[in-house]
Design goal:
heterodimer, A: alpha/beta, eight-stranded mixed β-sheet, eight-stranded parallel β-sheet, 14 helices, B: about 400 residues, alpha/beta, 12 helices, disordered C terminus
Chain lengths: ~475, ~400
C-alpha cells in the first residue's frame, strides 16, 4: 500500500524527463515505475500531473533567515525574515530545502553557535534545512579543533569571507593565515569551504576614493565591488586551496566574467571547485541600479556589467557555474531601500519564492535549455555538492519524496501581493511561463494551488556529508 | 481501487491530448533491425504485401529500399505512400521524431488511412536503443506511442561472422524480442542460432524456410514482458529452458537456491569472445536507495559495455510489488511492475547481465558495497545518505575492442 502515487508525462528522473509513476511510502520514493505501472496498486492518494513538470524539490543553498542587519544609523539591530516566513514562501515557490548560516561569534564555542542557531530553526521551519558554519575574524586554535569535530557531526560546509564587504562590517573578514589553517582542517575532516571572495584592499580603497570624491550614491556600487576585485580574490584563494591537499571550494555568488574564468582555469587543472551564482545576477546588471528603488536588485558583492552577466550564463552552460541561489534576505521594501549609499545599502535579495519559475522561464522557455539542465541548476547539483544526494535533489528510489510540480497552465505575471514573502519583489511585472501547483516535502503535500498545509514542525535539520566524488581531484 | 483526484489534472489549454473524449490507445511501435545484408529489407519488402501488415505504417529510409518505385501507386506526396494492400509506407525526412509526429498528425487529421501499428526499419548499422529511448523521452511520442517488439534479422551465412566483427550487430541481437534467421537453405542456421542464443538466451528464434514468410501478426506484436502479463521471456524461465536444453549452445547453471552467479563465456570469435553473460541473485530484499545507486553506478562505470541488463528486483520497501529492471548502456527505463511474484518462486532479485568485458566480479562487489553502505546509513540514523563510498575499479579495458 502506497501513501501516494503520482503519475505524469514529464517526470524528471536521473535518466531524463519521461512519463513515469512515482510510488511514495513513509516519506520516501520507493519506486520510479513506467507510466501506468502503479495504477492498479493501492494508494492512499493518487495525483495525475498530466503534462506539468514533475521535478525534485528545489534546493536553495544560500539564504539568510533571522539574520541581524546592520542598521544604517548605527541604532537597534533588526532581523531579516525568520525561517517560518521564508520557508513558507520557499514552499509556495517549489523549494523544499534551504541552507542558511550559523555565524560563530568570538565569545562562544562552535557547538554553542550551532545550538544557538538551532534555537532559531528547530520546530520553526516548514521545510528541511541546514547551515553552513560561518567563521569570522581571528580563528583561535581551539575553534579549529572543534571545527574538525563539527564537520564530522554533519555540518559539512564552512563559510569564509575574504573581505569585510563594507567599512561598517569590519570583523567579518578572515585573514589569509587563518584561512589557510581552516582549509587544512576542512580538507582533513572531509568538508567543503564555501567562500565569499572579494579583494578587501581594492574594495575598501574604492570606498575611500568614492566617498572622498562625493560619489557615494549606491548607483556606483559596481565600481566598488568591481570585477577586478573578483578576479584577484578568486584567484588568490583558489591558488591557496590548490596548495592544500584534499581541499575543495565552492565560490558563492559569482558575479563577473573574471570569476567564471578563474573557476574555469582551476577546473581545467582538475581541482574540485564549484561555482554558484544568484538569480538576480543572471537577470539584472549594474544599469538596473538606476531604476526606481534600484536597491531592490542589489546583493553584495554587486551587480556587474552585461558582459559579466553573459559570462555567468555561459558559465552555467559550460560546467563552471553549477548552482543558482538567491542569497535570500527577507525584509520590507522600506528596510531594503532605507540605505542609498555604497556603504549602507541593505544586501541580500527577496527571491526564494519566484526562483524556480523565473529560472525555468529564462532557461527553458527563452533559451531552449533542457528541463533536465534546469533541474540540475536549481536542485540536483546543490544536493550533490552540499552533501545531500541521493537523499535530496533527485526523483529516484530511496530518495526523500520532495516533489515539485511546475504547471505551464499557471503561467502568470509576478506581483508582490500574490507572493508570500514581503511587500515587494524584484520581479514585479515579470511574465513567468510556469508556476508551482504542488509542493511535497517527504511525502506530505505542503502546498497545493493556493492552499498551504504545512506545520512548523514539519521541517527537519539535514546533517550533511560531502561525498568523496565531489571533493576529489577530477 | 484508486481514487483519482479530478482537481489535480493539469492539461494545458488548446493541446490535443489523447486523454480527451474518444481516447486513442497508444500506438505500438515495432523496430525491424538487422545488419547490412542480413535480408531485412528483402523480408520487409515481402511482409509489406501481406494482409497482416495492412493496418501498419512502415517507416523506411528510402522508398527505393522497399521497391516502391516499381509499383504503380498513387502518391499523395513524397513522404507517404499507400500500398495496394493497404499498408502505409513512410519515408524519414529530417529526424525520426519529426517523421513519427507527422505520421500521427496525418492520422489525427484523417489525411491518411488510420493505421494501428508502426514498424520502423532501421538502417543496417543502427542500434535499436536510441529509437526505443526516443519513444520514452519525447513528450509527444511518449504519450501517443508505446514500445512494441524489436525484431532482428540475422542471416545464416554471415550472421556469426557479423556478430563477431560488428558491435552494432551484437547490440541489435541483444535487444531483440524476436529473431528471424534468413538464408537457412544456404547455410546451417544452427551456428547463427547459437550465436544469437549466447547473446539473448530467451529470445524466440524463427528460422525462415526459403520461400516462407513469417507470420507478420505474430512477429509484430508486443512482447510478453509488460506489467500485468505473464513474462514468458522472463530470465528465470529462459535460464530454466536453457539448463534443460542439450543443444550444446549454453549451459546456464543459475542456481535459484544459492547466491551463485552463473557465468557464461563460451567459445566464440571476435566480438563475441568478449561478451559475458552472468546472473546476479539476491534472496534478501534490496533497499530502494540501493537500486538507484546501482543503476547510477552501472551507467557510469560500464556505460556502453553494458549491452543489456534485465530481471526482477525485490525492493525492500515494496515487497509485494515485483519490479522489472531493464537497461541497456546508459539508458535505464522506469521500472515495470508485475502484479505478483511468479507462481512457485519466492521473492528474490535476479538480474541477467550481458556485458562486453568480464564485469561480473565488479558488479557483485559494487552491489555488496552499495547495500552495505545504504544499510549502515539507515542504521546510523542521524547521518545523511551521501554516496561517498569507494567504488571498486572495473576490469582492465579489452585491447582491440575499439569504440
Amino acid at each position: 500500500m502506497l501513501d501516494l502515487m503520482l503519475t505524469g508525462r514529464r517526470v524528471v528522473t536521473p535518466e531524463g524527463m519521461r512519463a513515469a509513476d512515482l510510488g511514495v511510502r513513509d516519506g520516501r520514493i520507493i519506486m520510479v515505475a513506467e507510466a501506468g505501472a502503479l495504477a492498479d496498486h493501492q494508494s492512499a492518494r493518487t495525483i495525475d500531473a498530466g503534462d506539468a513538470i514533475v521535478m525534485p524539490g528545489g534546493i536553495d543553498p544560500h539564504v539568510h533567515c533571522k539574520w541581524p542587519m546592520p542598521s544604517p544609523d548605527g541604532g537597534e539591530v533588526m532581523f531579516t525574515g525568520p525561517p517560518a516566513q521564508v520557508s513558507r514562501a520557499a514552499l509556495f515557490g517549489g523549494t523544499t530545502t534551504l541552507i542558511d548560516f550559523a555565524a560563530w561569534q568570538p565569545d562562544e564555542t562552535l557547538h554553542e553557535c550551532i545550538a544557538r542557531r538551532d534555537g532559531d530553526w528547530r520546530d520553526q521551519c516548514y521545510c528541511d534545512y541546514g547551515y553552513h558554519l560561518m567563521l569570522q575574524g581571528r580563528i583561535p586554535p581551539a575553534i579549529l579543533d572543534e571545527l574538525h569535530q563539527c564537520i564530522g557531526e554533519g555540518h559539512a560546509t564552512v563559510k569564509i569571507f575574504t573581505t569585510d564587504i563594507t567599512p561598517s562590517r569590519r570583523g567579518r573578514m578572515v585573514g589569509f593565515g587563518d584561512i589557510w589553517e581552516v582549509l587544512k582542517v576542512v580538507a582533513g575532516a572531509g568538508g567543503l569551504a564555501v567562500i565569499h571572495a572579494e579583494d578587501n584592499d581594492i574594495v575598501m580603497h574604492m570606498y575611500d576614493k568614492l566617498i572622498a570624491e562625493n560619489r557615494a550614491h549606491f548607483t556606483n556600487l559596481a565600481e566598488v565591488h568591481n570585477a577586478l576585485s573578483e578576479e584577484l580574490s578568486f584567484r588568490r584563494i583558489i591558488r591557496l586551496a590548490e596548495n592544500v591537499p584534499g581541499a575543495a571550494l565552492y565560490m558563492m555568488h559569482t558575479s563577473a566574467a573574471s570569476g567564471v574564468e578563474a573557476i574555469a582555469e582551476s577546473r581545467a587543472k582538475g581541482f574540485p571547485i564549484y561555482g554558484e551564482t544568484l538569480h538576480q545576477y543572471l537577470m539584472y546588471s549594474a544599469d538596473d541600479y538606476a531604476r526606481p528603488n534600484g536597491q531592490i536588485y542589489h546583493t553584495y558583492p554587486s551587480l556587474k556589467s552585461r558582459h559579466d552577466q553573459a559570462a555567468l550564463w555561459d558559465g552555467m552552460a559550460g560546467d563552471r557555474i553549477h548552482t543558482v541561489a538567491t542569497d535570500e534576505l527577507c525584509c520590507t521594501l522600506a528596510v531594503k531601500v532605507i540605505g542609498d549609499r555604497i556603504d549602507d545599502v541593505t544586501g541580500g535579495n527577496s527571491g526564494v519564492e519566484p526562483r524556480l519559475a523565473v529560472m525555468y522561464t529564462e532557461m527553458v522557455e527563452k533559451r531552449g535549455w533542457s528541463v533536465e539542465r534546469f533541474v540540475e541548476l536549481v536542485s540536483t547539483n546543490a544536493a550533490r555538492i552540499m552533501g545531500l544526494h541521493p537523499r535530496k535533489g533527485v526523483l529516484a528510489a530511496g530518495a526523500d519524496a520532495d516533489i515539485t510540480v511546475l504547471d505551464p497552465a499557471l503561467a502568470r505575471t509576478v506581483t508582490a501581493p500574490d507572493l508570500h514573502e514581503t511587500d515587494y519583489t524584484p520581479w514585479e511585472g515579470y511574465s513567468a511561463a510556469i508556476w508551482p501547483s504542488l509542493t511535497i516535502l517527504r511525502g506530505k503535500v505542503m502546498v497545493e494551488g493556493d492552499a498551504f498545509h504545512g506545520d512548523l514542525t514539519d521541517g527537519d535539520f539535514l546533517p550533511r556529508r560531502v561525498p568523496d566524488s565531489v571533493r576529489a581531484m577530477r | 481501487m484508486t481514487a483519482r483526484d479530478p482537481t489535480a489534472r493539469h492539461t494545458p489549454p488548446g493541446r490535443n491530448r489523447s486523454g480527451a473524449a474518444g481516447a486513442v490507445p497508444p500506438t505500438p511501435v515495432h523496430v525491424l533491425t538487422g545488419f547490412l545484408g542480413a535480408g531485412k529489407t528483402t523480408l520487409l519488402n515481402r511482409l509489406l504485401r501481406t494482409p497482416e501488415l495492412a493496418d501498419a505504417a512502415v517507416v523506411v529510409n528510402e522508398f527505393g529500399d522497399v521497391g516502391i518505385d516499381h509499383l504503380l501507386v498513387e502518391r499523395s506526396d513524397d513522404l507517404l505512400v499507400e500500398l495496394p494492400g493497404g499498408c502505409l509506407c513512410c519515408v524519414v525526412r529530417g529526424d525520426l521524431a519529426t517523421t513519427l509526429e507527422m505520421l500521427l498528425a496525418r492520422r489525427d487529421q484523417g489525411a491518411c488511412r488510420p493505421f494501428r501499428t508502426i514498424v520502423i526499419e532501421t538502417s543496417g548499422l543502427a542500434e535499436p536503443n536510441p529509437i526505443l529511448n526516443l519513444l520514452v523521452t519525447d513528450p509527444l511520442l511518449a504519450d501517443r506511442t508505446m514500445r512494441g517488439a524489436v525484431v532482428a534479422v540475422v542471416d545464416a551465412i554471415n550472421g556469426p561472422a557479423t556478430l563477431a566483427g560488428h558491435s552494432e550487430a551484437v547490440a541489435q541481437v541483444a535487444l531483440a524480442d524476436r529473431i528471424v534467421v534468413t538464408k537457412g537453405d544456404l547455410a546451417d542456421p544452427a551456428r547463427a542460432a547459437q550465436a544469437v542464443r549466447y547473446l539473448n538466451p530467451d529470445v524466440p528464434v524463427e528460422v525462415l524456410a526459403p520461400d516462407a514468410l513469417p507470420d507478420a501478426a505474430a512477429l509484430f506484436r508486443e512482447p510478453e514482458s509488460g506489467p500485468g502479463q505473464r513474462d514468458s521471456t522472463h530470465p528465470e524461465a529462459g535460464d530454466a529452458r536453457a539448463a534443460r536444453s542439450d543443444s550444446g549452445a549454453l549451459h546456464a547453471h543459475a542456481d535459484a537456491h544459492a547466491p551463485a552467479h552463473g557465468h557464461e563465456h563460451g567459445h566464440h570469435d571476435g566480438h563475441l569472445a568478449d561478451i559475458h553473460r552472468f546472473t546476479i541473485e539476491r534472496q534478501e530484499p534490496l533497499p530502494a536507495a540501493a537500486l538507484s545507486l546501482l543503476v547510477e553506478t552501472l551507467a557510469q562505470q560500464l556505460g556502453a559495455n553494458l549491452l543489456r541488463v534485465k530481471g526482477l528486483v525485490y525492493i525492500a520497501e515494496a515487497g509485494a510489488m515485483p519490479a522489472v529492471l531493464h537497461g541497456a548502456q546508459h539508458v535505464f527505463h522506469p521500472l515495470a511492475v508485475l502484479p505478483a511474484w511468479p507462481v512457485g518462486s519466492a521473492p528474490a532479485t535476479r538480474l541477467v547481465f550481458i556485458t562486453r568485458g568480464d564485469w561480473r566480479e565488479f558488479v557483485v562487489r559494487v552491489l555488496d558495497a552499495i547495500v552495505a553502505e545504504v544499510m549502515a546509513l539507515t542504521a546510523g540514523g542521524a547521518s545523511s545518505q551521501a554516496s561517498g563510498g569507494q567504488v571498486p575499479s572495473g576490469p582492465a579495458p579489452v585491447v582491440g575492442q575499439g569504440e
